[in-house]
Amino acid sequence: MSLDFLRVGSLYLREQEKRLDAKYYAKALRVRWNLExxxxxxxxxxxxxxxxxxxRFKRHYVPRSRSAVPLVGAREIFFWPIKPxxxxxxxxxxxxxxxxxxxxxxxxxxxxGNSLIAGNSLREVAISQHVIRVRAKEQARQGYLxxxxxxxxxxxxxxxxxxxxxxxxxxxxxxxHMPIPILPAxxxxxxxxxxxxxxxxxxxxxxxxxxxxxxxxELLGIPExxxxxxxxxxxxxxxxxxxxxxxxxxxxxxxxGSYHLPEVESLLRSLRVGKYPITRxxxxxxxxxxPPRFKRHYLDANRGVPFVRPSDLATVRILExxxxxxxTPELDQAxxxxxxxxxxxxxxIGDITLVxxxxxxxxxxxxxxxxxxxxxxxxxGYLxxxxxxxxxQVQLKREIYGGVIDHLEIEHLAKLNIxxxxxxxxxxxxxxxxxxxxxxxxxxxxxxxxVKELEAWIKWGPSGSGQGNR
Length: 470
Fold this sequence. Notes:
Layout: H1 10-14, H2 22-38, E1 42-44, H3 45-48, E2 49-52, E3 69-72, E4 86-88, E5 104-107, E6 115-117, E7 126-127, E8 131-136, H4 142-150, H5 152-160, H6 172-175, E9 179-181, H7 185-220, H8 262-272, E10 278-280, H9 281-284, E11 285-289, E12 304-308, E13 322-325, H10 331-334, E14 341-344, E15 352-354, E16 363-364, E17 368-373, H11 380-388, H12 390-398, H13 410-414, E18 417-419, H14 423-460
Parallel strand pairs: 3-7, 12-16
Antiparallel strand pairs: 1-9, 2-8, 3-4, 5-6, 5-8, 10-18, 11-17, 12-13, 14-15, 14-17
Helix pairs in contact: 2-5, 4-7, 7-14, 8-12, 11-14
């Protein structure tokens, strides 16, 4: 076991921060010391940026409709593409709830310090009070601030100044004193341009995914899910409880009402009247695999393999990277393979992603089911597009079992209904999906390289020592 020791003068306890939590000194104060030693001039964040912090507000939730305003929280802003699950009445929102283009969004409750630069996809989406908006003043560049927040300096400072006994928090008051190194204008401008380039690529990828979904409906000859109205029994006068009937021969051994919801049956009925016959997912899959449960030994990057958890599937990038030991006995079975479709099968059900070359050699949790498309029969991009659509999602959710923690097993995934479209039809959808993931990976690569470059500039200081190596 390795311990981190740091000697702190009593002056900080008596006259300055008056913090008794060790993490503040191990993270936030150490960041400040390292920045001061770098030699770059420093300015408080409050001098070069504006903050917008909404605070708690009353939410008037309504069902999804054309007029309803989508609402996302501190984790959902990282979903790619954005798929809001909650909606507000249009008369209960105001302009401050919506981010502007290129606003920096920082999670300020729960998981602290994760940041994202907002694109056009969030312009008409309301953001909850668990997100702080940051906007650079004229003397700073937005992309440069975003890169600093994503660096080890910015993230460690924010996690060091967090407070709260149960739920951790930060607010503009503590961020106001965050030290920001002022690097030369050309470095700030270059960093800014690269981060905005990554934003454009990420947004284009999200648009391609939505285009692929719409194209799939058109090619398969099935209606848009929002246009399908489930049939419930008429409500008795004075009641609002929705009721429906199920024939005894249709129970299939399931007595849980969610399995027989009319929404499921109406979507399945629409699938059956499409252009192509319906088959089971197992007929289009080379394999559906769930690795055995194994003990996880988390180590550093040098001794571990990058590890993917269910919470990582829906987000544009992995927010909290972890590594499991290279000597894990079950590692071979846990490794991810390019072109596999991953589905979260425990806890939060139905998050899906496509394994690309960026994740080659990484390991995945046993809570992730792996599906490989059968060659010359199916494309992984087509399977991804269908399973992420409402047609796939309602089938995944109806198969859930478990009294406390939701679960899915291989047999539940194997019997999912999916149109067996010709490979040339599937290819048109799969091509868009693959291009979208390539754009996402390229955007993440640009961001990671830019952050590393900024960290190197800060480390070497104004003297420029080691610049020839960059």
